[in-house]
Q: What sequence folds into this?
């Protein structure tokens, strides 16, 4: 990835986003209250498992580091970190939530009158695939990314939209819902994961094989300064510019803009393949295990029916 100069010059606020941390902590405490103290008002509730607590805390820490810690600041400076952030958040952390949050709580949320019809539509496999991957591809169009990187409110809205649609996209694969709804078979889940990879490939390919840098916010000093003003307090940024002579993102890495862009595309593709390999492994063996259980259950049911038939005929002997 090349040498990186220290980003500590941007100060504590820019590197660690304490206000974002407070929001994350508040929402985490609220969630734990909902699934412990307040859970008794929810149908199908049960005590929280230790594994769910650990996974949820890991997911929360990753979310904070990716969107509030130094990785987020670096994602505004170096495109490689932007793609690292994308891959980790949408292909690792969001799927983790299905193992960290009890199924009954997810069912309760998605059964709310306002949410239910929308969620039922959005979790249809084809719709779920197209919506997230379409939004992801649109986001990485140069004109869209450059615009969103310089508008804090719209960037926040688009990030939330991507997160919600990513959660929806992974629902057909990882949900453990007890609601009456059709579920994908193991083979269908494997095909679904494969199709996500297929739909992500054009964006990664465009980024990797482009012959010149595509994004002004990572190459043009003026556009980059505008983007940085969204995550660095204006007074701090003005002082840094006046004292250090920073003229653009190239100050922080010895990679060229094109190398940085291509590296970002490769990072996204490699992490995608790694995460998807683990997912396919999990889905395959879960499918194999469930098929074995169904087979055993069918056999036991046949034996019980045979025993009952034999008992019926024995009474006439």
A:
């Amino acid at each position: 990835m090349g040498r990186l100069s220290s980003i500590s010059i941007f100060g504590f606020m820019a590197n660690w986003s304490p206000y974002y941390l407070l929001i994350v902590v508040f929402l985490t405490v609220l969630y734990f209250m909902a699934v412990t103290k307040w859970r008794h008002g929810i149908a199908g509730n049960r005590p929280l498992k230790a594994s769910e607590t650990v996974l949820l805390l890991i997911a929360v820490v990753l979310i904070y580091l990716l969107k509030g810690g130094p990785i987020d600041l670096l994602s505004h400076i170096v495109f490689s970190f932007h793609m690292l952030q994308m891959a980790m958040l949408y292909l690792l952390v969001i799927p983790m939530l299905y193992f960290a949050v009890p199924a009954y709580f997810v069912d309760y949320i998605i059964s709310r009158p306002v949410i239910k019809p929308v969620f039922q539509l959005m979790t249809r496999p084809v719709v779920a695939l197209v919506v997230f991957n379409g939004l992801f591809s649109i986001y990485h169009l140069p004109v869209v990314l450059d615009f969103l990187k310089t508008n804090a409110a719209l960037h926040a809205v688009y990030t939330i939209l991507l997160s919600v649609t990513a959660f929806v996209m992974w629902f057909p694969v990882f949900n453990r819902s007890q609601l009456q709804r059709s579920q994908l078979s193991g083979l269908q889940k494997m095909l679904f994961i494969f199709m996500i990879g297929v739909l992500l490939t054009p964006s990664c390919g465009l980024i990797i094989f482009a012959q010149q840098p595509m994004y002004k916010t990572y190459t043009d000093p003026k556009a980059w300064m505008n983007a940085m003003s969204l995550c660095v307090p204006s007074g701090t940024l003005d002082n840094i510019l006046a004292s250090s002579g920073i003229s653009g993102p190239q100050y922080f890495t010895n990679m060229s803009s094109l190398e940085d862009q291509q590296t970002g595309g490769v990072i996204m593709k490699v992490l995608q393949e790694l995460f998807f390999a683990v997912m396919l492994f999990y889905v395959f063996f879960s499918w194999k295990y469930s098929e074995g259980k169904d087979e055993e259950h069918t056999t036991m049911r046949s034996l019980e029916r045979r025993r009952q038939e034999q008992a019926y005929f024995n009474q006439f002997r």
Residues 8-309 form one domain. The mean pLDDT is 89. The first helix runs from residue 11 to 16. The chain has one domain: 8-309.
